[in-house]
Amino acid sequence: MARETLDPMLAKVRRYDDTTPPKRLLRKWDHEEITAGESPLHLLRHRKSESRCRVLLYFHGGGYMVGPARMHWAAMAELARDGRADLAMSIYPKSPEHDHQATIAAAVAAYGTVVERYGAENVVVGGDSAGGGLTASLLTVLRDRETAQPHAALLISPWFDLSMSDPASQAQSKSDLILPIGGLVEAGRYYAGDLDLTDPLVSPRFASTAGLAPMHIFVGTEEVFFADCLGFAHKAQANGDHVTLRVLARGQHVAAIFPTPEGKIARAQMLALIDWP
After folding, report:
1. H or E segment to which residue 76 belongs
2. What's the pTM?
3. Nearest Cα residue to 110 out of 130, 78, 134
4. Is the dihedral of CA 186, 156, 55, 140 positive or negative?
5. CATH class of the domain defined by 3-274
6. CA 249, CA 218: separation in Å to the nearest integer?
7. What number of helices (H) and strands (E) belong to the chain?
8. Given a cut of 80, is residue 49 above it in pLDDT?
9. Which band of pLDDT confidence, cut at 50, 70 and 90, is reported for residue 51?
10. Which of 34, 54, 121, 128 has a CA between 20 and 30 Å from the CA of residue 274?
11. To 5 degrees, how large is the angle CA 70–CA 75–CA 77?
């Protein structure tokens, strides 16, 4: 899609972004806005929570183009509160104004900021959809730079392959009620910039998982990312890397963060898998 067509559409959609914490959260959470690199990082600490000096650093979904949504704030605040942790929400640079270089640089800066405050062993990094892909990319960059990995990573319906090239993903489009494959590939081209859509830096489906933090993947059976999540997890497990996979039966995209009974069960499983001391 040409920029002259895309830009007006994005302007309309972005009006619904919540790039600062919703007011209802601020009734119970103390808020500090930090600049990590050149991007905002919102740090929230629950006033009544028994803090254990640990943090959930979160990268929201939205095709690398929009977000976060109110649902992201609500679900991750709940997860952080129940885990007696602080919440750090990154507002990373978006496509098409920026490509992967700026976005990954912002993720690295956000991670460095929270590590300086909390220590890598007290950081859990997470993300959904595009944010899940970004989280996996961050882990590979940290490994390649020989930087300490976080305690664990939560990958919620992660977008592992910008090219959507697995035939099983194409077949899955009949059951996915949320994500159109054609639109995903177009968004992926903007994010990849000069890179091929299958480059491991932007499509972690093709990256090595050796030396990465323990990763916990949550995906629904009905979504187009299901096949890539299965492939990523099975490859990592075959190599002896620490990856767990939780499949939500009949789950649509990012069902694990929905405000539903199934979503709450999934988030309880996340806390158990994180295994924070």
Report:
1. helix 70-82
2. 0.97
3. 134
4. negative
5. alpha beta
6. 11
7. 9, 8
8. no
9. low
10. 34
11. 95
